[in-house]
Amino acid sequence: MLASILFMNYHEPVPFYMGRLEKCQQSEQDLCAFLSRLKQDQFLQQQISQANNEDHVVAIALSEGFVLDKEKFWLYESKDYKRCVERRGFYSKQ
Q1: SS3 assignment, position 80
Q2: Diameter over CA atoms, the chain
Q3: Which of 3, 28, 45, 88 has most Cβ atoms within 10 angstroms of its Cβ?
Q4: Does an H or E element contain 84, and which?
Q5: What is the rounded (10 degree) CA torsion for 76, 47, 30, 28?
Q6: CA dist list (Å): 13 to 4, 10, 19, 39, 72
Q7: 48 Cβ partners below 8 Å, 6+ apart?
């Protein structure tokens, strides 16, 4: 009887990062989808060209249905003075 009570109260340990890992994977998928759509959508490119910082990019992405983490991408100006969004750690040859 004591063993069954102990067994009922036993919970398998869950790694502390499990919830954050799933959230991280979802934000990574959203970033990939957003960057892919940005390459094809002229209107979205026009909105990004008017963005002043990463917060504006997050707001634009949210209006399009994407949830972005501003720590995962950067907004920069290319050599031809166009604003671009890329994954952090990526350096454009433009």
Answers
A1: coil
A2: 76
A3: 45
A4: strand 83-87
A5: 10
A6: 19, 9, 13, 43, 30
A7: 38, 57, 60, 75, 83, 84, 85
Q: Which two tokens stand for residue 85?
A: 């969004």
Helices of type H across 41-93: 42-49, 54-63
Going by the DSSP 8-state scheme, the letter that residue 76 receives in this structure is: E
Q: Is the pTM of this model over 0.85?
A: no
- Write out pLDDT tens, residues 34-89: 999 999 999 999 999 999 899 999 999 999 999 898 888 888 888 888 888 888 87
Instruction: Report residue 32 as tokens.
Output: 């990939």
